[in-house]
Design a protein that fits this description.
11-stranded mixed beta sheet, single chain, 11 strands, 7 helices, alpha+beta, globular, about 30% helix
């Protein structure tokens, strides 16, 4: 198993290192393809390579003609099977953190919660790989208050690090009459204001924690971004008096996420390349936003 993981990782890194050459080749083919479609002469710098490139273009289909990146490798099998999530905490979790993680188990379908015990991160990741988990979610706390969430996709990454703020569990919601029952349906997802490249990357990481829902599912999970703070809400809706009278019930929990780092690797790989890290002390503008407008 260890040798297989090392081989797969080396193959992934090798394909990732070839992206620069493949991107250059893709641009050359694109220029030739556009010149042929518009009836224009082939660009001067490509005339020596025209015959070879045109032969490659003729052999391409709708799948091979599209430029691929390491991001496609990360979620290449996402559509083939439902996600399977390993959910755990930091060591010696407090009662509030344990309660919060129990509720998160129902938020993410196909999630399994384990006690951290004395296990180190590398042991948890190895266990998750050997049991075909697709993601590992780690929740951290500070003095009994949940303050961190790590989402690590297996087997290659990426790993997203979030700050966790304003956590309200189900039993802490004030209006007990309006709160709904916790269903185990696969939810419909709503992503609001994830408009930048980093925003699309974050929404891609979060949406692959959930399987594809059925059309008649009445559970809705919302990720709404405002000023780079992502609000999470979990609702169900009921049609009490017909399609025009829809009653929305929050089923909890609720919290805010603040992205501060994305790494191109799993959580135990300290040498993994950093794709994004927030540096507020280097911002030149007070209102600079990374995820959305």
């Amino acid at each position: 198993m260890l040798r297989r993981n090392v081989r797969l990782r080396k193959e992934y890194l090798y394909r990732k290192n070839l992206e620069g050459k493949e991107r250059l080749l893709y641009e050359k083919k694109r220029k030739i393809r556009e010149a042929l479609q518009e009836g224009k002469p082939i660009p001067t710098e490509l005339r020596n390579e025209e015959a070879t490139l045109r032969q490659e273009i003729d052999l391409e289909d709708e799948n091979t003609a599209v430029q691929r990146t390491h991001i496609d490798d990360e979620y290449a099998n996402a559509a083939e099977k439902d996600p399977k999530i390993l959910l755990t905490t930091s060591r010696n979790p407090s009662a509030p953190l344990t309660q919060f993680v129990k509720e998160l188990k129902f938020v993410f379908p196909n999630a399994q919660r384990i006690n951290r015990g004395g296990q180190v991160i590398s042991e948890i990741i190895e266990t998750a790989r050997s049991h075909d988990f697709t993601d590992v979610v780690l929740v951290h706390e500070h003095r009994g208050v949940p303050d961190g969430l790590i989402v690590s996709h297996l087997p290659f990454g990426p790993t997203a690090y979030f700050g966790l703020l304003n956590v309200v569990t189900r039993h802490e919601i004030q209006d007990k009459k309006s709160i709904g029952n916790m269903p185990e349906q696969y939810p419909h997802l709503i992503f609001n204001n994830f408009t930048t490249m980093i925003g699309e990357r974050v929404s891609n990481i979060l949406k692959h924690l959930f399987p594809v829902p059925k059309p008649d599912a009445r559970r809705i999970v919302t990720f709404a971004n405002q000023s780079d703070y992502i609000s999470f809400r979990n609702h169900v809706y009921e049609k009490a008096g017909g399609p025009k009278s829809i009653e929305l019930k929050e089923i909890g929990p609720r919290f805010e996420l603040r992205l501060y780092q994305i790494k191109l690797g799993t959580v135990e790989q300290n040498e993994a390349q950093t794709e994004f890290v927030i540096k507020p002390y280097m911002n030149t503008a007070k209102k600079r936003k990374y995820i959305g407008d």
